[in-house]
Specification:
Oligomer: single chain
Order of helices and strands: HHHHHEHHEEEEHEEEEHEHHEEEEEEHHH
Radius of gyration: 28 Å
Distance between the termini: 55 Å
Number of helices: 14
Number of strands: 16
Shape: globular
């Protein structure tokens, strides 16, 4: 991982429970040694869970269609790929039950192979659960029996509510579809097998979310029910927003022990007003590229795979009080292989940021050189160019290819959906426009024009492929435009990406009032609504559907 310069931000002594030991020395290494073998699936990122969900959907389709399995069996076997990754607590019970059902009911081809496959799936889940117990034991040893009451013990506990509600809704929808499809679904063909399998899969996904919410809520409540073990650690906010936890003596931030999603503990007063300075600080953290600074922290709870914890961390802002943060997701330990992957990603990110920074500096120098000594100009405008229109054309051709690959009713359904999405998105891509006048920036949009006064601009940036402009007003939705780019090509041939030039020119006007236009733009030049273009695109697509059907 990239090293954090300087010393970790200190935590006030008053925020550290008496006698709280540092998680350092041999204790973190013993905790890492308790992790399961590297071949045991253990997600360290949200993307791993998405991959497991996609794999479950793919396996369901293969079993339900080519193999001819019964829908419930296809979905239940496929869900074990997701449960093994996200909810290993389910597998020790579900795998033997499913194996028995497969032997008795024989729901499709190759069921003996599926029974044999469930044995290692069960073993891997048990290995992961046994490793959790070892991690808990070694974390308790590191705490040395020192405990303290979590600072949010008397506050409402929101953990798990969202997952419980969403999981319950998905479970009900899936089971409802299972009950309705036999009477009202297609009688023959692939759809007769695919749709029930999909319904069972949705019900299984809902069950997974429901169990995750209930387990997370139960573990979070247990953490606050009594005094919890405490450890002094170091933390930092990762590049993707999750918090990385380090040993207390890893002041260079070399080896994170685990990652966990956290949310700041709020006082919960419903009538409190949002502090503008806090909002600004939060937005800056969201826009930040790369990890945040290392901070001292106190960890409440017993960290292990799937655990719930609470952190009291030093604030990033000087003289600010410590920040209590409760876990909003499970603890995810990082194996050596995961750390190597994160290190490689971090190096690529740093190289990309360095390249973009150099391009941004060159663009800024070019714009300032052009504006040096110049008098305030008239109305300035920036608009979509050839690159944006080529991207829109490629998107249309790609979507059309997907559409024409379908037959029957699916073609018309997908065509209508593609036309609706295209009518909403393509006008902005084809005809976006930014106008600068004496009053600020004007942006055209689908429904009308939006405005940011000069003194209300919060950020103007070109981050990678995205040009973004945002306001200090919370009610203003950030404006953005996207176009592909290749930094090595720009450096090799001295090209200047249009987003870099636009961002540099707007920034120059924002920072230096003497360069701004001296007159206001009339209504026509501020930008017209894009909904007429959306109607034209929708009408053209509809005509193509009718003509080519």
């Amino acid at each position: 991982m990239s090293k954090s310069p300087g010393r970790p931000l200190p935590l006030p002594a008053a925020a550290v429970p008496a006698g709280a030991p540092s998680w350092s020395g041999d204790h973190p290494r013993r905790w890492l040694d308790a992790l399961p073998p590297r071949w045991v699936p253990s997600p360290s990122r949200t993307g791993h869970l998405m991959t497991a969900s996609a794999a479950a959907a793919g396996v369901t389709g293969l079993l339900a269609l080519p193999a001819g399995w019964r829908p419930w069996a296809a979905a239940l076997l496929a869900l074990h790929a997701l449960w093994l990754c996200a909810r290993p607590e389910i597998v020790p019970v579900s795998a033997p039950v499913l194996a028995a059902l497969l032997v008795v009911l024989r729901p499709g081809k190759l069921w003996p192979a599926a029974v044999l496959l469930l044995a290692p799936v069960w073993a891997v889940a048990v290995l992961r659960l046994v490793a959790r117990r070892r991690q808990r034991e070694r974390a308790r040893d590191a705490a040395g029996g020192v405990t303290a009451s979590p600072p949010d013990a008397d506050r409402p506990l929101p953990r798990g509510r969202f997952l419980i509600v969403c999981g319950g809704v998905l479970l009900a929808l899936g089971l409802g579809a299972v009950a309705v499809l036999p009477a009202h679904g297609p009688d023959t063909g692939e759809a007769a097998r695919a749709l029930p399998a999909l319904a069972w899969l949705v019900a299984g996904q809902g069950l997974t979310a429901l169990v995750s919410g209930l387990l997370g809520r139960r573990r979070a409540a247990a953490l606050r029910a009594a005094a919890a073990p405490v450890l002094r650690v170091l933390v930092r906010e990762g590049a993707d927003g999750d918090t990385e936890v380090f040993a207390a003596d890893d002041t260079a931030g070399v080896r994170p022990l685990f990652r966990v999603a956290v949310t700041e503990v709020q006082d919960g007063a419903p009538d409190d007003e949002v502090d503008e300075e806090e909002l600004e600080e939060f937005l800056e953290r969201v826009d930040r590229e790369g990890p945040g600074p290392l901070r001292e922290a106190v960890l409440y709870g017993v960290p292990c795979d799937g655990a719930e914890i609470l952190l009291v961390t030093a604030a990033e802002k000087a003289d600010a009080p410590p920040v209590p943060e409760r876990s909003s997701g499970p603890v995810r330990p990082l194996s050596e292989a995961s750390v190597r992957r994160l290190t490689a990603v971090d190096k690529r990110r740093q190289a990309r940021q360095t390249a973009y920074a150099e391009l941004r500096r060159s663009a800024g120098e070019a714009v300032l050189g052009e504006a040096d000594g110049a008098a305030p100009a008239g109305i300035r405008q920036w608009r979509a160019g050839l690159l944006h229109r080529l991207c829109a054309l490629v998107l249309v051709l790609w979507g059309s290819g997907l559409f024409w690959s379908e037959t029957g009713g699916w073609r018309h359904a997908l065509g209508a959906l593609a036309g609706f999405v295209g009518a909403l998105c393509l006008p902005h891509w084809l005809a976006w426009r930014i106008t600068a006048d004496s009053e600020g920036l004007w942006f055209n949009g689908l429904r009308g024009t939006r405005h940011i006064p000069w003194d209300q601009i919060r950020t103007v940036a070109c981050t990678g492929t995205e040009l973004k402009v945002d306001s200090r007003r919370a009610s203003f939705t950030p404006w953005s435009a996207t176009a592909p780019r290749w930094p090595w090509l720009e450096r090799r041939f001295g090209l200047l990406h249009p987003h870099e030039r636009t961002a540099s020119e707007i920034t120059a006007l924002w920072r230096d009032p003497s360069l701004r236009p001296s007159v206001p733009a009339d209504a026509g030049r501020r930008g017209r609504p894009l909904w007429p273009l959306a109607l034209v695109l929708a009408a053209g697509w509809t005509a193509a559907l009718l003509f080519l059907s």
